[in-house]
Design brief:
β22 and β23 form a beta hairpin. The longest helix has 52 residues. The protein is rod-shaped. The chain is built from eight helices and 25 strands.
Length: 500
């Protein structure tokens, strides 16, 4: 038997359903309920549709999954199909089982009463459900608000102290007065000079071998005239080598060629040079030498040499170096006094530009216990900017930084002062630098892994998954909140150096 199919819309009611059914020409019709929406869900609606179909001599079937509709259809003996493919001849009631016309007339009278009662019941149910819906909506709103607060209000701060490694490097920086900006490991410098003058005295350490005791002996004078002569004190006599002796007493020499006298004489210069052999004295100084002769019948003895303090070449060198060191310090202090806060004088770059005067008070070999030097010189040094050295150091560590590692902020240390190495055509500043580094970790991943966990679980996870120098510190707010926030943005990751 032919069957006509009508699809109901989500907004259909009894009137619209009747309009669609009025066009049906086949003896059987199937109403198909929409997947969404509530259509003809009351028993009264279904009874009115059934009545209209029976009034037109048709049989009614339904395709729906709505539990209320299926329940009402079963009570009204309306066949129900799960799909259009399942409808067949056996599923439809026979004509004998169809409702008789008399029953439909009685039903018409009952429907009016039922409809009124249904409307009253529907009104009561509607009012009851509206009250339930209002209470449910309020409870749902409160629950949603509580859930939202649970998500938004909690916050956590996680303080991490990672295990750090200090990298030490010795870097060589070329001090280049010809450039204005850092170029590789070349940094700009400027030369500053000052004029300094000072004196210094130091005890001598050298020794000089000199006579410390004069030789002495008897000098015999012979008269070359017939007259009496007087030999005064201090009469000088000498040897052929020029060693001179002086008499210590006055003597009278009688006239006559054979007359003589002997007096004590002593060498003018102390030391062994005065120890001369007998007959070594051969001359008398002055006019008296034309009238008398002199000689020493015995050797002149008693002359002794000894070592005393004197100037050596090492004394001069050491004194000059000590005075230069002092002048370098004086010049460095004057140069640094005029520098800006970031500028430094390169250690070891000081040098003498010009020497105006260099005077010693004694020469090597001269006897003295104290040597004095006065220097008047001009000293120059190289000045660099500390920020330029930091730039080269940062560049060096950036080039050497391994993947998965990061620099600890503000951990770069430049061990000043370094030293300047003078090469053939440039000055190289060699300096020790150090930088703290640590293994990096994704903060986004940490926040994702920590959310929703208890304090103990979060601490355990951080201690096991990260290389930490100290246990992690976790502060959850509010203080009594038992778990980490569910929202990642409410978890703040801080590193130890950020908290200082």
């Amino acid at each position: 038997m032919k069957v006509q199919i009508i699809n109901l819309d989500p907004n259909d009611d009894v009137s619209s359903a009747r309009d669609k059914l009025s066009w049906v020409k086949s003896p059987r019709v199937i109403l198909v309920w929409p997947e969404q929406g509530s259509v003809l869900t009351s028993r009264l609606d279904l009874m009115l549709v059934q009545r209209f179909v029976h009034a037109h001599g048709m049989q009614l079937g339904l395709v729906t999954f709505d539990s209320d509709v299926r329940r009402h259809a079963k009570s009204l003996a309306i066949p129900i199909f799960s799909s259009l493919d399942q409808q067949n001849e056996e599923a439809w009631p026979s004509e004998k089982e169809a409702m008789p016309l008399e029953r439909r007339e009685l039903l018409t009278e009952d429907l009016a009463t039922s409809r009124h009662q249904e409307q009253v019941n529907h009104s009561r149910i509607t009012e009851r459900w509206q009250r339930v819906l209002r209470i449910g909506s309020l409870a749902l709103a409160l629950t949603a608000m509580a859930a939202l607060l649970c998500v938004i209000v909690p916050a956590a701060e996680v303080l991490l102290t990672p295990e750090t490694v200090t990298k030490d490097r010795t870097i060589q920086i070329l001090l280049d007065p010809e450039i204005e900006n850092v170029q590789g490991n070349h940094i700009p410098t400027r030369e500053v000079s000052v004029h300094v003058i000072d004196s210094m005295r130091k005890p001598t350490t050298g020794t000089v071998n000199i006579g410390i005791q004069a030789a002495h002996g008897i000098v015999v004078f012979n008269n070359l005239t017939l007259e009496e002569l007087s030999i005064p004190i201090g009469t000088a006599v000498r040897t052929a080598d020029g060693v001179r002796f002086t008499t210590l007493e006055k003597a009278e020499l009688a006239g006559g060629l054979d007359s003589f006298c002997a007096v004590e004489g002593v060498a003018d210069e102390p030391g062994k040079a005065g120890n001369v052999a007998a007959q070594a004295i051969i001359a008398v100084d002055g006019a008296l030498g034309l009238k008398v002769t002199a000689t020493n019948p015995d050797a002149m003895t008693g002359g002794v040499n000894g070592k005393v303090n004197g100037v050596s070449f090492r004394d001069r060198f050491n004194l000059r170096q000590a005075l230069l060191d002092s002048l370098y310090k004086q010049a460095a202090a004057e140069i640094e006094a005029g520098l800006s806060p970031n500028e430094h004088l390169a250690p070891g770059s000081m040098r003498v530009m010009q020497t105006y005067s260099e005077q010693y008070n004694y020469q090597p070999g001269e006897v003295t216990e104290v040597l004095e030097l006065t220097l008047d010189i001009e000293i120059a040094g190289l000045v660099y900017d500390d920020m330029d050295v930091q730039q080269v150091a940062i560049q060096t560590f950036n080039e050497e930084l391994e993947s998965g590692w990061a620099k600890v902020p503000e951990s770069l240390r430049i061990n000043q002062p370094g030293q300047v190495l003078e090469l053939a055509d440039s000055s190289v500043y060699e300096v020790e630098v150090s930088q703290g580094v640590y293994q990096t970790v994704s903060e986004e991943r940490l926040r994702r892994d920590l959310r929703g966990h208890s304090l103990d679980e979060a601490s355990f996870y951080l201690s096991k998954s990260l290389e930490l120098a100290l246990p992690p510190k976790i502060q959850i707010m509010p203080a009594l909140w038992p778990r980490m926030p569910l929202v990642e943005a409410r978890i703040r990751i801080e590193w130890d150096w950020e908290n200082k």
